[in-house]
């Protein structure tokens, strides 16, 4: 007996950043173990899901010297880096790897305080995502009121 498949419940596959880097804004984020690091990462996720031609890529793989990820960063249409705090670790990883950073943002510059917690609000993520999208000229498919 055949089952009906609800297409809305299937996972949405992302564009292949290795195959399509030239057509994509590649986003590298901080994944720091504090509030602003988590906000930065979640902003990257939101820009990937709701943006146009944007794709989150693995910052740690670049730091580890993965040739594929280095190549993605070097071929990207634009590279957007979102750091959590003024240490700017993700930006430094890209600079050391020789990847040109087109836009570098720091979550604390948007009025967020670094806190020793991983509990963050959707409102803070949306606030930062909308501000970054506006600065880079990216349209987001989201309701601006969470």
Give an account of the 3D structure.
- The chain is of the alpha/beta class.
- It has a single domain (21-133), classed as Rossmann fold, CATH 3.40.50.
- The protein is built from 6 helices and 4 strands, in the order αβαβααβαβα.
- The chain has a 4-stranded parallel sheet with strand order 2-1-3-4, with helices on both faces.
- β1, α2 and β2 form a beta-alpha-beta unit.
- It is globular and about 45 Å long.
- It comes from Thermococcus peptonophilus.
- It holds the Pfam family DGC.
- This is Zinc-binding protein.
Please render the helix and strand layout as text.
Elements: H1 17-20, E1 25-29, H2 35-50, E2 54-56, H3 59-63, H4 67-75, E3 78-83, H5 89-97, E4 103-106, H6 122-136
Parallel strand pairs: 1-2, 1-3, 3-4
Helix pairs in contact: 2-6
Per DSSP, the total helix count is 6
N→C terminal distance: 41 Å
From the 3D coordinates, which CATH architecture would you assign? 3-Layer(aba) Sandwich
Strand order of the largest sheet: 2-1-3-4
Computed over alpha carbons, the radius of gyration is 16 Å
Q: Beta-sheet strand percentage?
A: 5-15%
Sketch the topology as an H/E string, one letter per element.
HEHEHHEHEH
**Overall tally of structural domains:** 1
The total beta strand count reads 4
Round the mean pLDDT to the nearest integer and report it.
91
CATH class designation: Alpha Beta
CATH topology: Rossmann fold
Task: List low-pLDDT spans.
Answer: none
- Give the overall shape: globular
Structural class: alpha/beta
Helix content: 25-40%
| Largest sheet entry | 4 strands, parallel
């Amino acid at each position: 007996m055949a089952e009906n498949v609800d297409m809305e419940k299937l996972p949405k596959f992302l564009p292949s950043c290795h195959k399509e880097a030239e057509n994509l804004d590649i986003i590298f984020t901080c994944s720091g173990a504090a509030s602003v690091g988590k906000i930065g990462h979640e902003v990257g996720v939101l820009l990937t899901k709701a943006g146009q031609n944007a794709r989150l890529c693995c910052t740690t793989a670049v730091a580890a010297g993965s040739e594929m990820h280095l190549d993605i960063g070097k071929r990207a249409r634009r590279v957007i880096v979102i750091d959590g705090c003024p240490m700017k670790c993700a930006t430094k990883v890209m600079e050391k790897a020789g990847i040109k950073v087109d836009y570098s943002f720091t979550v604390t510059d948007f009025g967020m305080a670094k806190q020793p917690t991983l509990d963050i609000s959707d409102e803070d993520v949306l606030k930062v995502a909308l501000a970054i999208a506006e600065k880079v000229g990216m349209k987001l498919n989201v309701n601006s009121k969470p």
